Amino acid sequence: MCGIVGGVAERNVVPILMEGLRRLEYRGYDSAGIAVMEDSGIDRLRRLGKVQELQNALDKQPIRGTTGISHTRWATHGAPSELNAHPHMSHPEIAIVHNGIIENYETLREELSAAGYKFESDTDTEVVAHRIHQHLQDSADLVAAVRKTVAELEGAYALAVMNRNQPGKLVLARAGCPVVVGLGIGENFVASDVAALLPVTRSFMFLDEGDIALVERRQVTVFDAAGNQVERPVKESELTADAAERGNYRHYMQKEIHEQASAVARTLADRIENGVALDTAFGENAAAVLDKTKGVHIIACGTSYHAGLVARYWIEQLCRIPCSVEIASEYRYRSPVVPDGTLFISISQSGETADTLAALREAKVSGYVSTLTICNAPESSMVRESELAMMTNAGPEIGVASTKAFTTQLAALALLTICLARRAGLEERQERALVAQLAELPGLIEQTLLMDKSIEVLAEKFVDKHHALFLGRGVQNAVAMEGALKLKEISYIHAEAYAAGELKHGPLALVDEDMPVIAVAPDDQLLEKLKSNLQEVRARGGELFVFADPRVHFGENDGIHTMRMPALIQDFQAPILYTIPLQLLAYHVAVLKGTDVDQPRNLAKSVTVE
Ligand code: G6P
């Protein structure tokens, strides 16, 4: 979702800003723009489409400047177009970029129109530019004008603002959307996330909610929401600039699917000792919180929500405590009942998803035992605001469709399940057996990835299909949901997942030779039930694609394609391993269809608006 990069330097910032925008492409966007200034005026260039379009325009019409802001836009108010692309300007003086949504922009727009301001775009952002311009008529202080303006805004935003009359200064404001300050030597930068600035610095300052920062070449001055000057801690990022490179892979998603063995190994590393799971994986004070936990509420969105659904099966089965899982955008607008002793868990690869973050904030005042975030972004808002946190350590995930972030979330949730189950009477012998299953995962993932070539061939059968049905039972129902999500996200094939037992209550009506049905069939207690459900599909002429345990037989015939998993897989391992062929299937179908695999249309990696 919208990305911001800005900088103040002695050198020309255009190449730095453009590289930053490229590094933010993964967030999802539809247009890009840049505005820079030196001593004269502000030069601005915007293009609909990819950052490369903007680069091509810059090659033809170079601009340079030592102070600048740039942006990738994911349309909310107003269609994707050059006029709606950021930066937005007010008169020749003010240029701004914005991430988020201004909810009261219509009222402000009417007021500003009445005061004579002319609007070029349909965006909510342009009102902010004009409002700052209007406040600057009373006093030339840019920080004061931004402060007065943000006090009038409702909604969530990160803003970067520059004023032609004050070269060498950027003003940054943060409320509800992430933004970081990257500290260089004699130059400073701002961006929506750390990855954008890794080529220029590894030293970052993170702003708090409501902060306004004045960023200059040699100093950064931060004011809190009350207007007091404050210090914010500076941290060194452990990421390196090449951690987010694509290497020899054709797409980031492909690379990230193939990195899952090492990613899961990193999730588990140092969290298992002498065959048992360590409470400290979830934070220093986790043991005391887990001792008090009598139930769990898991809140998340998208793929992370599916990880929560898997965890519900594990937690209720092995820990015998109630676990509910809910989509954050629903949870935050109802009044959930919080029984005594309930632990709130937010799951998010980015740690910035607006709805999940809002749910976490709500949870902190709702009487939970504690809040725990399972996350892949150590410096994210959720990690900073949650009482307990566990990093999944998957490494940067650039493909919009989440892959290694999901399987590492599952590994983290498996560890949590074991720690809670121990408190519910899981014997040490049983714990060691479960931990041993987890320790085998990296090797089993490598073996499962060997299915890649055969799935590439299989993918050809899906290219001309418009719909697909994914079936699973028990915990595999959540895996089927994740498989369907992957296929629809990147191949644009309409895909739905159903608990196989629910088939006859509706979706069976859709089954015919044009509706491929994909099933995940481990050798578990529900296998025989699943087989009966699949017969119902065959009897209606539906073509079946079954990812099955090597021991399972479906009576091969023309309408059933069975893909055998490469090894015997135990129950606790199954959700992670059966997800992998579904990721590969979605990937290869998308490649054959020629879609934009890493940045599928209309989607964003980090959804920082409601
Ligand atoms: C977006 C991404 C998904 C992700 C979801 C939740 O929709 O495209 O891949 O699962 O947000 O994101 P989170 O960062 O909270 O896990």
Automatic annotation (TrEMBL):
GO biological process: amino sugar biosynthetic process; carbohydrate metabolic process; fructose 6-phosphate metabolic process; protein N-linked glycosylation; UDP-N-acetylglucosamine metabolic process
Family annotation (Pfam families): GATase_6, SIS
Active site as annotated: 2, 605
GO cellular component: cytosol
Record field: transmembrane: none
Domain SIS: start-end pairs: 286-426, 458-600
Principal location class: cytoplasm
Reactions catalysed, as given in the entry: D-fructose 6-phosphate + L-glutamine = D-glucosamine 6-phosphate + L-glutamate
Domain Glutamine amidotransferase type-2: 2-218
Root EC class: transferase
EC number(s) per entry: 2.6.1.16
Subcellular location: Cytoplasm
GO molecular function terms attached to this record: carbohydrate derivative binding; glutamine-fructose-6-phosphate transaminase (isomerizing) activity
UniProt entry keywords in alphabetical sequence: Aminotransferase, Cytoplasm, Glutamine amidotransferase, Repeat, Transferase
Gene3D superfamilies associated with the record: Glucose-6-phosphate isomerase like protein, domain 1, Glutamine Phosphoribosylpyrophosphate, subunit 1, domain 1
Functional description taken from the UniProt entry: Catalyzes the first step in hexosamine metabolism, converting fructose-6P into glucosamine-6P using glutamine as a nitrogen source.
Assembly mode: Homodimer.
PANTHER family per UniProt: GLUCOSAMINE--FRUCTOSE-6-PHOSPHATE AMINOTRANSFERASE, ISOMERIZING (PTHR10937), GLUTAMINE--FRUCTOSE-6-PHOSPHATE TRANSAMINASE (ISOMERIZING) (PTHR10937:SF0)
Protein name from the UniProt record: Glutamine--fructose-6-phosphate aminotransferase [isomerizing]
Source species: Woeseia oceani
